[in-house]
Amino acid sequence: METAWSLSYFERFFRRHRQVYVIFTPTKHETRHNETRQKYPFLTLQRQRFHLNFENASSAAGIPAERDFYRWAWSALKNEYLRADIGLILLDEEEARAYNRDYRGKDYATNVLSFALNEGEILPCQVSERLYGDLIICPQVVLKEAAEQGKTPERHFAHLTIHGTLHLMGYDHIKDDEAEIMEAEEIRLMRAAGYPNPTERTDIKMDGAQPKTNFLNA
Fold first, then answer.
1. Bind-site residues for Zn(2+)
2. What does this protein need as cofactor (predicted)?
């Protein structure tokens, strides 16, 4: 759960991954527009405000659907930003380890890395109308942690997507007071999504509630 502040990340990212992935981008072609609406009916409103550039470059199995990552990230930022453009890439351990080593000097794969556009400059959420940044998630690490902590993979992926998005928004956990604020927001967002407190190490049913699948009214 780390933040890596680096403008050079974007240049290196697109050198490694030369394709440009644009998901949920409005199109002038009515046919494509209708196809998108049919495939992601619950994103009709959100996609006008939030673009998620998603790539699954991992060989891991049991990864949630693309739309799940969209909902989780959107739930974290929707009340703070008018527009947001986030890149989210799933990488296997070897490449995730390389990014962690290159940008943080730590030679191991971590669960999620956050790369904010504004290097070293954290602005209050309320003064910014746009959010730009990138997330790298390593599914192998996430799945291993979920098993060790007695959590479902879906719940842990949800938590880490929200956690990484909050980092992009300026939240951090280096200092105790900052960590308390960030943890409280994570708990609130996870509960709003129908998941247990992310700090609990086992999955506990919440009065039979199931995770929500529609974040429009969350």
1. 163, 167, 173
2. Zn(2+)
